[in-house]
Design goal:
With 216 residues, this protein is of the alpha/beta class. It is built from 11 helices and 6 strands. Helix content is 50%, strand content 12%. The model has no long low-confidence stretch (mean pLDDT 93).
Length: 216
């Protein structure tokens, strides 16, 4: 895999954290007496926090504003990201290898910036990246647009030939591939049902970063 620039999703790719997002989104709905539909996780996973809050308010008729839902999401996740979140196995070793090879790296995520900064610091990964960009900051989810990837690539001074996107989300991978990006699909339990599709669509696919490091 030749690359000069690497763009990493955070939740489910760098960090073992998607399970927490799944739980807290559903917990917010249940706190207002709403039972999440079977496809709730599938629909909300690729969304930025604001889009997910809007969806919860509109689809489930919550008696609060989307801003209040975002605030509740932030409160529920802040402790987890500050004190508990961990990198997925092999992540730091792989990032160190890329850094030693001079690869420039960026984080492109649906999570809001203050939480991203806390999470990377807690997981010991903050020193590897040139910067962070979020879906809310570019105004588009990964399921709808590749804008967040385009922004990160430009900030790294790369192009689609020398840049690889590392993603666990099936929706984000489809979006990136449709725009001509090279993509490495990373396995996460939250996307297990789509793993065969991810392997077929992505340029590369790995069940772990340890496997990725071993293959060079």
């Amino acid at each position: 895999m030749r690359l000069n620039c690497a763009i990493f999703d955070m939740d489910g790719t760098l960090l073992d954290s998607m399970w927490m997002w799944d739980r807290q989104g559903e917990a917010i709905l249940r706190a207002y007496g709403r039972e999440p539909a079977p496809d709730f996780r599938r629909i909300t996973r690729p969304m930025g926090m604001t889009d997910a809050a809007n969806y919860c308010c509109q689809a489930y008729g919550l008696p609060v504003t989307s801003q209040e839902v975002v605030g509740e999401m932030n409160r529920r996740m802040e402790h987890f990201y500050t004190c508990e979140v961990k990198a997925k196995p092999g992540v730091e070793e792989f990032l160190l290898l890329l850094k030693m090879e001079g690869v420039r790296m960026y984080v492109a995520t649906a999570t809001q910036r203050p939480l991203v900064e806390k999470a990377l610091r807690c997981a010991g990964l903050e020193g590897y990246f040139k910067g962070i960009i979020t879906c809310d900051e570019v105004g588009a989810s990964k399921a709808a647009s590749a804008k967040v990837f385009d922004y990160a690539m430009r900030r790294l001074g790369g192009n689609k030939l020398d840049t690889v996107i590392f993603e666990d989300s099936w929706a984000a991978i489809r979006t990136a591939k449709a725009e001509g990006f090279r993509v490495a699909g990373i396995f996460d339990n939250s996307m297990a049902e789509h793993w065969e599709e991810i392997c077929a669509a992505a340029d590369y696919s790995f069940r772990s970063f340890r496997e990725l490091s071993e293959q060079g």
